[in-house]
Request: fold
Amino acid sequence: KKKKEEERRRKKKKKKEMSQRNSSFNILKPENLLKRVNESISSTNGADREKKTGLDQLHNLIASKKKNWSKVYESIMRRHLELCVDLKDHRTAKDGLHQYRNMVQNVDPASLEAVIVYLIELAEGRANAARIKANKVALIAAAKISDLDQEETPESIMLSTMTVGGVKDRTDRNLVVPW
Reply:
């Protein structure tokens, strides 16, 4: 019985060590996590998979209960929001903002304001870029029309019978609305 019990303890201990290695909480300093996430993303040229992994690690750090606020959490939260905007993950951004608010509301409310303003600037920048892209797509579509008498293609005529909006509205819906 003692051998079985001892073996069970060893397996349990080994399993706990493995979970700690895979956890982002194993990093003692938040600066190290931020540095590691940035290096990971830059080394893979910003692959979505690495961004998602980095976002998960940053989110776990922000959502962890064992932390005292320091100025570095503001830069961590900014990076968290950048990744959320890149991946269009609004739920994680919202949850991260709630966690950050709980962390800083009594210590440094100005930091929360700075982070929210940063998120608004990021989102507006992406929306403007999407509008510009939608306008370019509309101009390219207009330039493709070789015959000025035939402004509409058969495809656009069929789509116009099915929908109320024009080509520009559909392009805007595809490119701008997600932002």
Remarks:
- Helices lie at 2-22, 30-43, 48-63, 72-87, 90-104, 109-143, 154-162, 167-175.
